[in-house]
Amino acid sequence: MSKGTLAELALIVEGELHGEDRSFAGVSTDTREISANQLFVALRGPNFDGNAFVAQAMQQGAAGALVEHHDRCGLPQVKVDNSLVALGRYANHWRRRFAPVVVGITGSNGKTTVKEMITSILRVAGRTHATQGNLNNEIGVPLTLLQLSSRHDFAVIEMGANHAGEIARLTAMVAPSVGVVTNAAPAHLEGFGSLDGVAHAKGELFEGLRRDAIAIINRDDHYYPLWRTRVRAREVLTFGRAATADFRVAEVQQRTNGHGDGLNLALETPDGRLELKLALSGTHNAVNAAAAAAAGWAAGVGLPEIRAGLERVAPVPGRLAIRRTAHGARIIDDSYNANPASVQAAIALLAEQPGQTWLVLGDMGELGDDADTLHAAIGQRARDAGIDRLFTVGPLSAAAASSFGSGGQSYDDTSELIAALRADLHDGVTVLIKASRAMRLERVSHALISEGGF
What we know:
Radius of gyration: 23 Å
Strand order of the largest sheet: 9-10-8-11-12-13-14-15-16
Structural class: alpha/beta
Shape: globular
Number of helices: 17
CATH class of the largest domain: Alpha Beta
Number of domains: 3
Helix content: 25-40%
CATH topology of the largest domain: UDP-N-acetylmuramoyl-L-alanine:D-glutamate ligase
CATH superfamily of the largest domain: Mur-like, catalytic domain
């Protein structure tokens, strides 16, 4: 499907076309992955400049390039002051060509899980486009929007940020019909400055909604009153455990038996009670399911389809995915990312497990000056929850091992950690692995499972 012509692009982004007009069939920011007849967007960052690869894009068969500096290699180019801003402007133009119900979602914790839940619900009801992987920033969101087409009934767009103003820009680009904020928690504090800064940044989504959109707010969150005053949409739905929530978690039971790990869940909704079996562990996922149910309902989907969609959601690798080792130990791999609130939720899940419970913790990133204090608090939380042993890796998480006390062990590198775990692991132990993405602790999970696990 054609994504337009270079002349149209120049008009929309207020750029200058150098060379002949051509149509282009897609957009890429990476010359290593670009396909023939695509538009190459030359982005610039602290350690790279895509403008240096325009000639390479031409050799790969690109139809043209969006650049900040004209390259005389012969490839038609649209020159702009800022290629990232221009990419976002064109993505917004493309999104407005179509009329799907668009759900925009952000939050400190759970946004990817809720995105997967909403996507599963909407796919029961119609053709749905959704954010893939972690394409949730100022590059990934426009690339996701540019894959929309007239065949889509719904779209689910995840929006992430680590500085104030990013969610506002992404919301303006996405123009959501339904806006969801899962919560505000200590995450990316180096960029936001404080938890209040996080909450105000997440609230940018609500401020950016159209009047005819629907805002979905976590009724349990400390910042609910703030967000409620910032909503510009006429209609608001709430979710959570609070008695006044429109989509309320009425009952939740952790399921660990021969029928598989997960949750038995009951939600009270405006259309009545909804009972379902979720294949995800962790009682916090009951609240995530309530958020997704609210979004599905706001998008016009009925309770039977909401139930079917939620029950189809499978654990995502690195997000509370449960496996077993050859020794009979259970590994809960939650290594994809971490901040203090998500680690506390993981500890609560681990504390519910039978037998011995071991927590493997890597460093939590972007916590600023409070990093040592927040890591130490996690060690104390694990001790108070009755966790039997704590294994840490990395300089920051050593504070957690120290505050945990007896049974806490700290390691300098992952190989030492893996060796220690392998030496002691046995039947009846549940190990939960949690760390920020940069720690790559999925290597620990893979190492333990690879010894004949399943």
